[in-house]
Amino acid sequence: MAQHDYVISNQSFPSTRTDINNALLAISSTNSGATAPSTTYANQLWYDTSENKLYIRNEDNDAWIPLFLLDQSNDVAGTLATEIDVEDASGTDTAGTALTIKGGAGTGAGAGGSIVFQTADGGSSGSSVNSHATRVTITDDGTVQVDNDLSIADKIIHTGDTNTAIRFPAADTISFETAGSERLRIDSSGIVKLITANDTAGTSKSLTFGTNAFNRAEIRVTNAATFDGSLEFYTGNASNFQERMRIQPGGGISFNGDTAAANALSDYEEGTWTPTYIGSVSNPTVTYDTQTGFYRKIGKMVLAQFVLKTDAFTGGSGSLFVAGLPFAGATSAGMFYSGTIGYSAGWTLASPQTLHIGSAGQIFVLTTNASTNGQSNLSGVIGIGNAVNAANSNFILGAITYPTDS
Q1: For the chain, which residues make up each domain, given as ranges?
Q2: How far apart are CA 74 and CA 76, in angstroms?
Q3: Separation between Cα atoms, residue 62 and residue 190, nearest integer Å
Q4: How far apart are CA 349 and CA 367, in angstroms?
Q5: Predicted confidence (pLDDT) per residue in 357-400, tens digit
Q6: Which region, left, alpha or beta, applies to residue 285 given φ > 0 means left and ψ of -120 to 50 means alpha?
């Protein structure tokens, strides 16, 4: 380490030789020293041994420009330049020069060096230098880590493999804005929310799919004054774009712009039920050959079908009913709901010819003609005495469609 004023004074030979050697030593050591050379020249180099920085003197010879910060422990250098600007190409149709930034390659099984980007936040007032924090790291395998703490591994953009993903810490919310207003939000629980400029009651939010404004499908959420919004589905083209289906705020689906809650399809289900012969006064003892029931409920309308056949039938008294309907009839004073009997056989006296249930009832009555010639009204109620105690008897196949309050 040496510095020199690069002026060889008139002096005797031994002193001249020493002066020249000192000048050469200063040149070879880049004018190194803990302080700047006392005599300076434009474009002169100086290595500051106190901070391990390499400087160059400016053209005006009135300031030092830092060039590099050298890590003497690890034998590496870091640039101090405030701008990296690759020189532009000259000439006609000449490609620009690429800028390549590389982390150092390892050897053998050794990992390659990462590329690390750091910034320093502002601190409290004072002259002390604020500390740096890592913001972005590109690791040797191409993973980009975005955070001020590399220990948070879930805030990572993965590329170059079959599990490409963008991940953020669990507490983060992702927002997308246009014209200074939030338009789309993915919160920490995974809920995706579309937002209009005025996210209040009465506004409509929509998610649109399609190739252009005239051929598309659209999903809208419309808020009422009480924020009990409906979910609406639109399809069509420029001449016929309209609501096709709506999920009502209180549940149920309506179609083609119908907003009435009473018209909404609120339920669909199907299943089995067990039809059973009972008596109005006391129940008979029955051995069934066939005892099957099936129902389909669409909204508040029930279609119930059944098949009954017995192998033994004893006891019981009163009128003969069939019990076990899956839902009670709708409550309406004085209303009766009729069904049909497609086939009946194996009865004594008269066979059942039709059936009905009353409002709020879950048991239906079997009826037949009251006369022997079949000319009068179906007013006769089948009684226990019409049943036969024999194999393959009291066979009835029927169905009833009726409303329910369920």
Answers
A1: 13-79, 133-169, 174-263, 269-403
A2: 6
A3: 60
A4: 12
A5: 988 889 999 988 755 544 455 567 899 999 999 999 999 999 99
A6: beta
